[in-house]
C-alpha cells in the first residue's frame, strides 16, 4: 500500500417550471476559504487487511482519501454524464430532489429559507430539467438507495471486501455544480464516499469540535450545524466557530477517489461540477 500526502407524482413541466425558477436567489455568495486546513492523507489501492488495520482501526481514526477502490467498477466507464444513468428501467423512477440556491444547505435559517425545497420527480424529468432550463439554482438527487435500481447497482460492487458489513444500503448522490450538504455527522457507521463523476470539496471536523459547530437541537436538523454556507469563517456571525475550530481537514476529490470519514466525524460536501457519488456506511 502506498501512502501519499495530499489531499410520488410526476412533476408537470408546464405547471411547475415557474415555481422551480422562483425558488432561487440571484444574489451571489462570496466564498471565503477557511484558514490552514490539515491536508487529508491519501492511500493508493490498499489491501482489505491494510484498509482495516491502518485506516478503520487506527487509534484514533482520521479521515483519508483512498484511491483505487472503485477501479474495477463498471460505473467508472459507463457513467460519463448524468444522462448516462437514464435507461428504460430508471427513467420513470421517482427520486427525491433538493432544490435551492447555489452553495446553500437545507439548514438555512434565513427569512428566504422557503427557497429551499424537497420534491419528488421522475428521474428522466430531473435530467431534462438540468439540460433545458436556464436557472441559477442547484438540484440534487440525495440519498437514493441504489438497491432499488438493479441495473445501476450492478455497476458498483458494494459491499466489497474492504467494508463487507454494511450498516445501511448504499446511496446515490446526483447533482449539479454548487450543491452543498452542510456540516453534519453520520450515526450509522463509518462512511465511504466514492466519487464517480465530477469534483467535490470535502471538509471534515473531529467530534471534539461539536461545541464550536452550532449543532442544531431540532429533530429535523439533528446532528447538523446551523451554519448554512461553506464560507463559515465569519467572526461576527459565528464567533464560536471562528474561535474554537483549530484542526480540520479539507480535500478536493475526483473520479476514482473514495473518502473515508470515521463514524461521528462532522463533514460538509460541496460539488464543484456536475457530479455522481455513491456512499456506503459500514460497521
UniProtKB/TrEMBL annotation:
Superkingdom to which the source organism belongs: Eukaryota
Pfam family, one: Cupin_8
InterPro entries documented for this protein: Cupin_8, JmjC_dom
SUPFAM superfamilies assigned: Clavaminate synthase-like (SSF51197)
Domain JmjC: 147-283
PANTHER family in UniProt: HYPOXIA-INDUCIBLE FACTOR 1 ALPHA INHIBITOR-RELATED, HYPOXIA-INDUCIBLE FACTOR 1-ALPHA INHIBITOR
UniProt protein name: Clavaminate synthase-like protein
Originating organism: Heliocybe sulcata
Amino acid at each position: 500500500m502506498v501512502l501519499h500526502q495530499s489531499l410520488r407524482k410526476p412533476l408537470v413541466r408546464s405547471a411547475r417550471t415557474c415555481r422551480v425558477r422562483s425558488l432561487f436567489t440571484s444574489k451571489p455568495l462570496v466564498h471565503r476559504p477557511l484558514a490552514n486546513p490539515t491536508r487529508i492523507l491519501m492511500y493508493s489501492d490498499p489491501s482489505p487487511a491494510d484498509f482495516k488495520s491502518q485506516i478503520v482501526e487506527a487509534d484514533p481514526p482520521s479521515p483519508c482519501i483512498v484511491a483505487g477502490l472503485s477501479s474495477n467498477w463498471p460505473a467508472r466507464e459507463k457513467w460519463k454524464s448524468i444522462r448516462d444513468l437514464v435507461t428504460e428501467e430508471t427513467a420513470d423512477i421517482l427520486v427525491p430532489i433538493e432544490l435551492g440556491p447555489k452553495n446553500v444547505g437545507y439548514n438555512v435559517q434565513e427569512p428566504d429559507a422557503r427557497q429551499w425545497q424537497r420534491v419528488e420527480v421522475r428521474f428522466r424529468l430531473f435530467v431534462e430539467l438540468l439540460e433545458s432550463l436556464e436557472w441559477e439554482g442547484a438540484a440534487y438527487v440525495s440519498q437514493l438507495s441504489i438497491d432499488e435500481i438493479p441495473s445501476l447497482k450492478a455497476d458498483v460492487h458494494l459491499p466489497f471486501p474492504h467494508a463487507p458489513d454494511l450498516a445501511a444500503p448504499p446511496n446515490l448522490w446526483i447533482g449539479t455544480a454548487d450543491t452543498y450538504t452542510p456540516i453534519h455527522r453520520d450515526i450509522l457507521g463509518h462512511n465511504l464516499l466514492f466519487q464517480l463523476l465530477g469534483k467535490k470539496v470535502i471538509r471534515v471536523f473531529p467530534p471534539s469540535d461539536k461545541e464550536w459547530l452550532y449543532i442544531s437541537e431540532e429533530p429535523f436538523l439533528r446532528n447538523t450545524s446551523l451554519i448554512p454556507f461553506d464560507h463559515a469563517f465569519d467572526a461576527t456571525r459565528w464567533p464560536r466557530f471562528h474561535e474554537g475550530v483549530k484542526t480540520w481537514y479539507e480535500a478536493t476529490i475526483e473520479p476514482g477517489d473514495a473518502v473515508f470519514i470515521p463514524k461521528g466525524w462532522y463533514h460538509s460536501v460541496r460539488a464543484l461540477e456536475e457530479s455522481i457519488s455513491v456512499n456506503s456506511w459500514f460497521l
